[in-house]
Prior knowledge:
single chain, mainly alpha, 79% helix, 0% strand
Amino acid sequence: MTMTWPEFWIVLACCGLTILICRVVPLFVLKGRSLPDGVQHALGLIPPAAFAALVANDLLTPGMFDAGLWPAGAPLVAALFVVVVARISKSLLWSAVAGVVAYAFLLAL
């Protein structure tokens, strides 16, 4: 079943309206207002939580140990190294470089 052009424009308009309501309107409503400290703290936790969920989804997969312990463990060891570098340097650049170098080194073993 294919979508007709009028249906496409309706779906596109609904998507645009949803983006406007969810992303733009809160900016205008909250402009110039200060949020409570608890809300600011909770909003500050969203980016690290989203990033952690994405990374965990790539690191921990069903059947990851089917190929053996080392092929599944190398990315986990590299991720642990990245966490250590991130805690010390607090730099995304150095964390990414350390992760790539650690992973490449572990695959070369």
